[in-house]
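Sample pair:
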Amino acid sequence: MTTRPFTVALDGPAASGKGTIGRAVAAHFGFAYLDTGLLYRAVGARMREGMDPVRAAETLTAQVLDDPALRTAEAGQAASKVAAMPSVRTALRDFQRAFARRAGGAVLDGRDIGTVICPQAEAKIFVTASAEARATRRHKDLVEQGEDLSYRDVLADIEARDERDTSRSDSPLREAEGALRLDTTEMSIEDAVAAATRTVEARLHQT
């Protein structure tokens, strides 16, 4: 536990496990947690309703992030599209940076936390896994939520999102310098959380 600002930047592609790891690390250290992907899902959902995406980003509040509809496959697809818009990313940066530097520590997971949002984060972790492993996880989650999607469709969506995330001109997904790399393809979630926790613990003792 710390009373000063301390940022943990968790980056990685869709369904790599970074959200599960991020929540566990935040709970372990008593840090605040922000799934930044929900910001883009919320903007994407508003855009689907007809709102200008930049206006949606500028007027976003934390309360809307609790909407269960933001976890659907459609919301994920819309999020990936608005995340490729530089104007939307710019509108959301101040929100994320203020959250990251709050007193008491914060964990943020996303695509560009350690590279763009918080390049000076005290701890950086890059979580990845094969597209097939990630599609299997996402398909299982969506089926449990009542979604009617085939594994093949989910894999195609994962691969399309990876392409958009890594090839966009503004803040593409990439591993931050000095980040711990966690490949969770064959790693249990318990082992991944333990490795991330050890990294954060070490950084806490260094600051």
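DSSP finds nine helices and five strands in the chain.
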